Amino acid sequence: VWDRFKPLWGNEGMESLALSKDGGILTILEGSDGSAYRTFTYQGGISWADGPRLQTDGRFHATDADFGPDGRLYVLERRLTIFRGIKSRISVYDQTAAGFSAPETVMESGYGTYGDLEGLDVWMNASGQMIATVIADNNFAAGEPTLIAEFALSP
After folding, report:
1. Is-contact 150 129, C-beta < 8 A?
2. Phi, psi of 5, rounded to the nearest 5 degrees
3. From CA 50, how far away is CA 27, in angstroms rounded?
4. How does the average pLDDT of the chain come out, rounded?
5. Nearest to 54 by CA among 5, 95, 107, 89
6. Which residues contact 80 (CB under 8 A, 6 or more apart)?
7. What is the DSSP letter of 7?
8. What is the predicted pLDDT for the residue at 155?
9. What Cα–Cα distance (Å) separates residue 148 from each residue in 94, 106, 151?
């Protein structure tokens, strides 16, 4: 079913599924147009509709997203350069009447620090601290680690 979208976006298609508190499902396209990511909202069956655009600076690609316990949308992003490798960041968006706010960066790694982070879960621990748990696989590369990392997010 998803191959029907490949002619529209090539290999930079739908990259994540985020479930909101009200049960809505949002997906984000991996690439941006340089200023915003396109999103789609699930309408039931095989139907998706254009969703709100998410502002971005165009330097990163989306790899996953999650609505945190605080109702905010957290987006895991990566930037790949041939000579320096991969760096990652987590941007957070507040929901607004018009869609979503401008992003706030809550974590940005250096190049090569964590590998290719592709999975994100945002949760609250027993002390009330918001935590972002991320995962990277090794992309079948012997020198690249598979890892899980956690970041405490500021309130």
Report:
1. no
2. -90, -15
3. 10
4. 88
5. 95
6. 61, 86
7. H
8. 67
9. 26, 18, 10
**What pTM was computed for the model?**
0.89
> Is it the case that residue 12 has pLDDT exceeding 60?
no
Helices (H), 10-136: none
Closest among 152, 47, 41, 35 to 90, alpha carbons compared: 152
Greatest CA separation for the chain: 47
Rounded to whole angstroms, the Cα distance separating 123 from 151 reads 11
3-state helix, strand, coil in the chain (%, to 5): 5, 55, 40
Question: Alpha helices of 10-121 — where are they, by DSSP H?
Answer: none
Classify 8 as helix, strand or coil.
helix
Contact status, residue 92 vs residue 103, Cβ threshold 8 Å: yes
Q: Are 134 and 114 in contact (CB under 8 A)?
A: yes
What would the two tokens of residue 145 be?
A: 């680690």
The rounded distance, in Å, linking the Cα atoms of 54 and 125 is 28
Are the CB atoms for 91 and 103 separated by under 8 Å? yes
Q: Going edge to edge, which strands form the sheet with 61-67? A: 61-67, 73-81, 85-93, 104-108
**Residue 88 in this model has a pLDDT that exceeds 50:** yes
